[in-house]
Amino acid sequence: MQSASEIVTDDRLNGADIVPLTMALVQMSGDLTWLDRIAPHVRGPWDYSERLPDELKAEIRDAAGRELRRVAAGGEVRLASPDEETIRRMMSVAVAETVPQEYVAMALEQMGWEQAVALATPERVAEKPAITGFSVAIIGAGASGICAAIKLREAGVAYTIFEKNDEVGGTWYENRYPGCQVDTPNHFYQFSFAPNDDWPNYYSRQPSILDYLKNCADRFGIRERIRFRNEVRGARYCPETRMWRVTAVDQDGRVHEQEFNALICAVGQLNRPAIPDIPGLDDFPGPVMHTASWRDDVDLTGRKVALIGTGASAVQVGPGIVDQVARLTVYQRSGAWVSRSPNVLREVSEGKKWALKTIPFYAPWYRFQLFWGFGDGLFQALAMDPAYDGNDLAVNALNQRFRETMLRHMHRELEGRPDLIAKATPDYPPFGKRVLADAGWYKMLRRDNVELVTTGIERIEPGAIVLKDGRSIETDAIVLATGFHAGRMLWPMDIVGRSGRSIREIWGDNNPRAYLGIAVPDFPNMFVMYGPNTNLGHGGSAIFLAECQTRYIVKMIGAMIAAGISEAEIRQDVHDAYNEDIDRRLKRLVWSHPKVSTWYKNGEGRIITNQPWRLVDYWRLTHEPNLAEYKTA
To answer: What contacts 574, CB < 8 A, 6 or more positions away?
Structure first.
């Protein structure tokens, strides 16, 4: 924290968002009347959702400055640990709606409350002595694998990470296409135990995310436990020893085998690119690259480029390359809901960074606003209301309001282009597919050198793409924004369980199931991260889910060690009951709407990727493992 004199002479309080600043003021001063004064002027959780009068803002900043000087000089924080009802009241004012009591414990944990009370950034946690006789293999050094390693290290459990690449980061290492950025607010898309107050943007670019993950690997001392350029080909459970035998191939082609007590598969859902089956694609003579396998050696300057797909990576890479290419032809199967996001291209001001680093409690309150606004605050828009008649274009009244808001944005951006509006307007309800942040997509579509094509592709020829209506479009290079093999989870690894059956035999290529998305019958001591039915299709943060899953797994391993258990396998009845429950719940959500066709579903129409839970539900379900749900030995 800065000294009192520095705060006295610093006017950077003007860079602090007024609502989290008020919450910090309330805690430093203990004066709850500030809540009543700002409540009528807060319209939502975003920094652009408040309408406080300038006079009131100035009064708050003056009062906050006085409290900062007092606390910096050694004065006490008068409301360091408010009671639950006071916290809930503050939360409700901060997001302009009533926050249920069930959110308090989770929010306090996620807000880094202990660090806020200490008025300091958490220091690197010292490594505990390793617990002898128990070891864990982690496959993947992306965000989930890093999270698991950090927490196993803190628990004193030995681990080894196998990573096929030469650096950490997972998807943030592999996805390097122009315009690649996170579509979740960065101050939410970060580990709660490792806050970063120096994000350059509100939605930062790939290099910044990768740097953050690298920093976490270094800061928490896990890098030396990573075997880079070691790709796991398979793992087999050995019932006689109750160990997992992991087979990996290193960069020189040498095969290595090693046994571990437990196995964590942290490869996620989105790590193997899906290449469309288009006649002639394999024979196209020009550059062809998937967004997840970007070729830095290819120069698109002056080329006629085909962009196939209009999903999350397409709306970023399109604006990222449009200034270089001679012509960009976008091939769309269905329109995407693209929302106005005022912060998506904004840089974080120095005043905001200063506030996050300096003002006690400011960063936790800012994070809570994002947590609510980009998470459970959206959840009610997903439920299909049988009594609501939305003409198949909306599933409930709130969903319809989101639709109208996004349509207004589209019409503003594409004003004067009714042809583009007709093509770009989705024919399914909002949130049926992930809503995308507009980082210049609509403006790009208006460009003279851009064409949006909705006619299907018949075939690809040398130098051209031929449409189903016979039209031929000159093409020099092809960019595939066509997603991943999400249904083939853990593929292409050969994971074999107790009975000798592989995970592919049990799941097939498109029907993965797991208890909590984590545990699978017949695969003792194996835990999956970002597994079946754990994706968030409306908002939220994959980092939050990684923390939930890590907590569950590390506590489960700790319980096994404490009880002297060498084998724990989820019971079939527990697994089946859970999956029957989530299937029922998912049928009532927008992703099951008949007009929604998406990678969330398998060929039989079952939703295999998304979860039906609010964030608070999944947090509660994964908070404390129950050994009684497992067969143990």
So the answer is: 515, 629
Asked whether the beta carbons of 491 and 506 are under 8 A apart, the reply is no
SS3 call for 570: strand
C-alpha to C-alpha distance for 24 and 366, rounded to whole angstroms: 10
In the DSSP assignment, the letter for residue 272 is S
Strands, E, within 193-281: which ranges?
Answer: 226-227, 231-238, 243-249, 255-260, 262-265
Percent residues over pLDDT 90 in the chain: 78
Q: How far is CA 259 from CA 138, 147, 525, in A?
A: 12, 22, 12
Three-state secondary structure readout of 120-144: CCCCCCCCCCCEEEEEEEEECCCHH
Query: Phi-psi category of 142—alpha, beta or left, where left has phi over 0 and alpha has psi -120 to 50?
Result: beta
Angle at 187 between CA 183 and CA 191, to 5 degrees: 100
Q: What is the b/e burial string over 117-135, where b = at least 16 CB atoms within 10 angstroms of the residue's CB?
A: eebeeeeeeeeeeebeebb
Residue found under tokens 């690997």: 217
Give the list of residues 6+ apart from residue 287 with CB closer than 8 angstroms, or none: 295, 298, 476, 477, 478
Q: Which residue has the tokens 């860079």?
A: 15
3-state secondary structure of 484: strand
d(CA 46, CA 342): 10
Single-letter code of the amino acid located at 227:
R
- Contact predicate 436/312, CB 8 Å: yes
Using CA atoms, how far apart are residues 151 and 149, in angstroms rounded to an integer? Answer: 6
C-alpha to C-alpha distance for 214 and 207, rounded to whole angstroms: 10
Residue 191: what pLDDT? 94
pLDDT tens digits, one per residue of 370-422? 988 888 888 999 999 999 988 889 999 999 999 999 999 999 999 999 999 99
Q: What are phi and psi of 334, to 5 degrees?
A: -150, 150
- Cis link prior to 426 (omega < 30° from 0)? no
Q: For 269, what's the count of Cα atoms within 13 Å in the CB-facing half-sphere? A: 23
Largest CA distance in the chain: 77
- In this predicted model, what pLDDT tens digit does every residue of 445-485 receive, in sequence order? 999 999 999 999 999 999 999 999 999 999 999 999 998 77
- Cα torsion through 571, 572, 577, 579, rounded to 10: 110
Rounded to an integer, what distance in angstroms lies between the CA atom of residue 78 and that of residue 94?
20
Residues recorded for the chain: 633
Ordered structural domains, the chain, with CATH: 4-121+351-376 (no CATH), 133-272+487-574+609-626 (3.50.50.60)
Report yes or no: 438 and 412 within 8 Å, Cβ to Cβ: no
Give the whole-angstrom CA distance, residue 513 versus residue 490.
12
Contacts for 409 with CB less than 8 Å, ≥ 6 apart: 338, 339, 340, 438, 442
Contacts of 207 (CB under 8 A, 6+ apart): none
Distance CA 437, CA 46 (A): 15
Q: Which residue, among 326, 303, 301, 330, has the nearest Cα to 463 in the 3D structure?
A: 303
CA angle (248 as vertex; 244, 250 as ends), nearest 5: 155
Q: Reduced to 3 states, what is the DSSP secondary structure of residue 198?
A: coil
CB under 8 Å to 515, separation ≥6 — which residues?
Answer: 570, 574, 575, 578, 579, 629
Q: Which residues contact 404 (CB under 8 A, 6 or more apart)?
A: none
Return the exposure string of 596-606: e unless at least 16 CB atoms fall within 10 Å of the residue's CB, then b: bebbbbbeeeb
